[in-house]
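Private note to self, pasted from the team thread so I don't lose it. Backbone tokens:
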């Protein structure tokens, strides 16, 4: 139950961490958008697989019948072909870390220069190969930024593709070029109206378009001999021969070149770059210092985006591994725990019990809670400690005039102090602590205290269930209580490392409480702090699933946030307070190495990794297959839970003390039907 504590540290509003998180989110989104655009938007189909469609009414006939190097300017369009007996070897789609070096080695052995039409993203990934192309005297030219189909791309995307390609080339090699080969292009005779419109925009951006006059069709991988046959000129006319040094297995291309180059030389053909073959001035120029700097910046950002995605991928693996590990351990623990239903701790426990109910402004549900307790089938006394309520909580309890129910009024001092007050007033050895919004089953108290038949038991956790499940938020929490909290408690029970006896339903041995000095108010999770202290003192804490109590869960996202924020932050405080248990021996060390490790992995680290799943899901919805991505998600509730952990960690790191945040009570629970109060 939430209420203000007596000693409040100065409250500092935490706004900075949300600003930092927002900035990180914006940067991350930018990186992922860039990565998705450069790696998944285009380039899936090989050259030649995209066939031209549509008419060619606007394409000048001189272009259709002309050479493969085209100036599509606003004046009279022009084109040129290679000189007779001249072969311009052209390689598309690189550079590739495997095949481009082999092509370069072979060309160097044969003393041949070629033209490499490189893809901007590949240059950014392998800038050293691009520099080697230039250093060895080959001509380097542009093949778009992402191997996009410029014919079908929107004008703004064409501009982006051309601009970024040139920047990356300048950053990687220090040169710029005026030659560009559009991806999926072929010979001039295949141009369509849409192709011509794209070539005109390409010319407006300052490029000459370089098509091909002969296609080796190595992209089909038809076999080495067929690649050679496709590459052999049919006459003495010069050719711009299309080949590839990237885009998959190019072993056939390498094998074909080893045989093709000597054969063509023997037939009297010479090899030249594109500009030399058609008689154009050198299209390659030194890039300016500013352009090189901008290009290096683009390359740096692209590499950073790749690194970010790599980190996200590994974090996704880590989150998946932790999730699977938690699922396996909890299922195994649940099955083993279920086999212990007939376990007896010793002789039946029949002695009376003191029930302490700390109450602060609990007028909405206090009557139902008290009536459920006095309807119990086990002898007990009820002590209601009114912690300075202003809504008449104590008056409501006194007006009930139920024998065995006492009210103690005190100034507001906080829940731990109220529980200590009740502990001093209690008459019996066995103590049950109950929140003022909790309704007990008639047999809950009796079942809850049976494990005390064993002298080593210091505390028992009951089975808290959500009573107000009417709304969506209530149903979410009900599922969480059943498959989350209670399954965890089964595991903790078996591993003898129970970290928390919930304030809603828990029982304690008075001797154990007095030995550790009662409850402490130095953390916001007094129940977790208390349980950890008992474990470290050598007491065993167990879980009694059959002791059922119904608690009132938050009914709004705001109330849920405040509750979980306090829970999480308080748990972090308790873990830090009891961190030395990790290196202790005996039962304290068992609790530390098992319980604290489990909490750190699955209740701190796993929620902190959970945003990775959401980030990857958004990335996948945009760039991958949505059907494979959507099943990863549980919207709203899961995000709320991990944001709570993120805020709690930031709060802890900032050294800010979080104040108690009182839960809003609705009075939605009713006392179970039981025997009349005598």
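Design output:
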């Amino acid at each position: 139950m939430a209420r203000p504590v007596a000693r409040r540290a100065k409250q500092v509003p935490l706004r900075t961490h949300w600003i930092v998180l927002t900035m990180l989110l914006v940067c991350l989104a930018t990186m992922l958008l860039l990565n998705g655009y450069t790696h998944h938007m285009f380039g899936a189909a090989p050259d030649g697989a995209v066939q031209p469609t549509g008419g060619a009414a606007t394409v000048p006939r001189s272009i259709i019948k002309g050479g493969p190097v085209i100036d599509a300017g606003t004046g009279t369009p022009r084109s040129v072909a290679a000189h007779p007996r001249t072969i311009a070897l052209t390689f598309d789609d690189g550079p590739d870390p495997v095949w481009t070096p082999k092509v370069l080695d072979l060309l160097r052995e044969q003393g041949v220069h070629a033209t490499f039409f490189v893809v901007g993203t590949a240059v950014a990934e392998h800038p050293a190969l691009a520099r080697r192309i230039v250093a060895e005297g080959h001509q380097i030219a542009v093949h778009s930024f992402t191997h996009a189909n410029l014919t079908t791309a929107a004008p703004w995307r064409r501009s982006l593709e051309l601009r970024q390609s040139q920047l990356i080339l300048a950053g990687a090699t220090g040169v710029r070029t005026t030659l560009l080969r559009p991806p999926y292009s072929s010979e001039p005779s295949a141009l369509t109206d849409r192709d011509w419109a794209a070539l005109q925009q390409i010319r407006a951006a300052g490029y000459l378009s370089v098509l091909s006059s002969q296609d080796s069709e190595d992209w089909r991988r038809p076999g080495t001999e067929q690649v050679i046959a496709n590459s052999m000129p049919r006459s003495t006319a010069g050719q711009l021969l299309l080949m590839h040094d990237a885009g998959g297995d190019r072993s056939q291309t390498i094998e074909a070149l080893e045989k093709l180059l000597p054969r063509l030389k023997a037939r009297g053909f010479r090899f030249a770059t594109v500009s030399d073959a058609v008689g154009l001035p050198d299209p390659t120029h030194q890039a300016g210092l500013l352009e090189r700097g901008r290009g290096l910046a683009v390359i740096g950002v692209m590499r950073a985006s790749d690194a970010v995605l790599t980190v996200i991928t590994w974090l996704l693996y880590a989150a998946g591994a932790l999730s699977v590990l938690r699922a396996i351990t909890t299922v195994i623990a649940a099955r083993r725990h279920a086999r212990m239903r007939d376990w007896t701790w010793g002789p039946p426990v029949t002695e009376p019990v003191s029930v302490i109910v700390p109450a602060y402004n609990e007028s909405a549900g206090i009557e139902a809670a008290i009536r459920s307790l006095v309807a119990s089938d086990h002898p007990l006394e009820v002590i209601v400690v009114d912690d300075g309520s202003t809504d008449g909580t104590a008056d409501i309890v006194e007006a009930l005039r139920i024998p065995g129910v006492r009210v103690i009024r005190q100034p507001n001092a906080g829940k731990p102090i109220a529980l200590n007050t009740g502990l001093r007033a209690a008459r019996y050895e066995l103590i049950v602590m109950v929140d003022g919004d909790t309704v007990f089953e008639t047999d809950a108290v009796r079942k809850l205290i049976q494990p005390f038949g064993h002298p080593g038991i210091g505390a028992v956790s009951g089975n808290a269930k959500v009573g107000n499940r009417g709304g969506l938020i209530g149903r979410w929490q009900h599922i969480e209580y059943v498959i989350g909290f209670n399954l965890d408690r089964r595991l903790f029970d078996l591993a003898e490392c129970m970290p928390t006896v919930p304030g809603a339903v828990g029982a304690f041995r008075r001797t154990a409480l007095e030995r550790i000095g009662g409850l402490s108010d130095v953390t916001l999770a007094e129940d977790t702090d208390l349980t950890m202290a008992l474990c470290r003192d050598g007491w065993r804490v167990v879980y009694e699933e059959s002791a059922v109590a119904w608690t009132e869960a938050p009914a709004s996202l705001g109330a849920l946030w405040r509750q979980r924020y306090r829970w999480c932050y308080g748990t972090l405080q308790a873990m830090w307070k009891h961190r030395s248990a990790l290196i202790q021996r005996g039962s304290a060390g068992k609790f530390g190495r098992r319980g604290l490790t489990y909490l750190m992995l699955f209740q701190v680290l796993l929620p902190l990794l959970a945003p990775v799943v959401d980030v990857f899901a958004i990335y996948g919805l945009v760039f991958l297959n949505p059907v494979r991505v959507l099943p990863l998600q549980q919207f709203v509730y899961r995000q709320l839970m991990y944001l709570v952990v993120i805020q709690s960690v930031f709060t802890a790191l900032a050294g800010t003390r979080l104040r108690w945040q009182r839960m809003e009570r609705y009075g939605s629970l009713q006392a179970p039907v039981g025997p009349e109060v005598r």
